[in-house]
Automatic annotation (TrEMBL):
Name of the molecule in the record: Adenosylmethionine-8-amino-7-oxononanoate aminotransferase
Organism for this UniProt entry: Hymenobacter elongatus
Gene: bioA
Enzyme class (EC, first level): transferase
Assigned protein family: Belongs to the class-III pyridoxal-phosphate-dependent aminotransferase family. BioA subfamily.
Coiled-coil intervals, chain numbering: none
Entry GO terms, CC: cytoplasm
Amino acid sequence: MPTLPDSTLSLAERDHAVLWHPYTQMQTAPLPIPIVRGEGSWLIAEDGTRYLDGISSWWVNLHGHAHPHIAARVSEQLRTLEHVLFAGFTHPTAVELAEQLLALLPASQARVFYSDNGSTAVEVALKMVLQYFHNQGQPERRTFLCFRDSYHGDTFGAMAVSSRGAFTQPFWPLLFDVEFLEVPVPGREAEVLAQLDALLTRPDVAGFIFEPLVLGTAGMVMYEPAVLSEMLRRCHHHGVLAISDEVMTGFGRTGPLFASSLLTEQPDMMCFSKGLTGGTLAMGLTTCAAPIYEAFLSQDKMRALFHGHSYTANPVACAAALASLELTRADECTRQRQQMEAAHAAFRQETEGQPGIRAVRHRGTILAVEYDPGEGTSYFSRLRDAFYQLALDHHVVLRPLGNVVYLLPPYCTTPAELELLYAVLRRMRALVLDFTPAANLPEILHD
């Protein structure tokens, strides 16, 4: 007979007995915090402790946890149609979501292909590019360009076009080769454009994939729309297709609804997930320009795009996305984003140049503080765990990228809640000022 869970164990202990968590060394990690309820910008633990979600639970939540409008639409859809295969069939929410998105996206986008997360949205785009050139009789065009510090997901194609690092090292022999460009941060634009020009002379270059304006896991590294627009213009001059990975930046994170809206030269493809459903259900999609779609049309079935997922265009996920999009387009959400952007700007002005601060970066609702511990910036900075615990001690959920700590809260986060987040960032600066590279961080934190 199956073993029943031990009723004397806590939820965290039961978790530890049966689960394997992402990005976690399970032998040394503390027990996870058991969250049983969400309410606006807050997460409520099993023991009643409330935690302010400063990172939208991995950048997915736009409007607050357990939002009643999204919940009502999901409930209604569950009582109507929970799922239907999307090969040879369709349904209203898939059509409506595609129609509404295409009306909002840059005019270059003409078709929607559904998947189920950010990595698969990227995989779809990569396969579209490669098969586009194959169908055009140019199979030699199979090299991708990407930024050196980029991150596009954890499936194999997405890993291949992401930065090579400790997370992907075991898989390096299995990843296809790409050409890495430096990130065109202010002051390096001319250097990166020259590097791009040299690569575009090669006949095998097929596509350029990028995180528009903000490289998330790189430490919220930011660059300007003008240089990216110029990069896309030069790619298009050489027939190279451009993929904008808006999995993190989409749906208002950078100010406008889409970061690509700030560009004067538009991408050929765009990838979405995370905020697509307001953090309610897993979903991804890839959009593309008409010429890309048309390259797959033929009497020859072998020219079709042979890619799909069991939950492609799931009706319930589509309903959640439609409800979230309705909230995102409302005047109230626009005001919320503007207020958060102004608050971040004021904190940046207060903080820049202070001892212990290497840089402060801000765009839209995204704020990142790069602390200066007297050593290089690194995802594996020993400050990371101290920062993480300090935030939890103040009932705040953050996920530091080494010595870079970012805020990316739900749009409904109030000014008072934002001030709590800023207060934690100020406490982190105090921690840094006490830090020396040889220090014992747990003792510093305890003190």
